[in-house]
Design a protein that fits this description.
Methane Monooxygenase Hydroxylase, Chain G, domain 1, about 0% strand
């Protein structure tokens, strides 16, 4: 949670990566699901601007990188 509050995109990416790995192996708790959704939104928003693509394209690229 603190990593998301920091506003650091690398910390946000770390949260997304770690929770995506956990999601592959087990069900996330409600709090973790919420954190994952928030982190993904922040990351996709940041990367969409950086890559000059829409939100959906950024999500697709993240999913591809995560292997989901």
């Amino acid at each position: 949670q603190e990593k998301l509050k920091s506003g650091d995109v690398f910390a946000c990416a770390e949260v997304v990566r770690n929770l995506a790995i956990r999601l592959r192996n087990a069900k996330l708790s409600t709090a973790e699901q919420s954190m994952y959704a928030n982190a993904r939104y922040l990351l996709t928003s940041e990367l969409a601007v950086s890559w000059d693509v829409d939100q959906e394209e950024a999500e697709a690229r993240i999913d591809k990188a995560l292997g989901v």
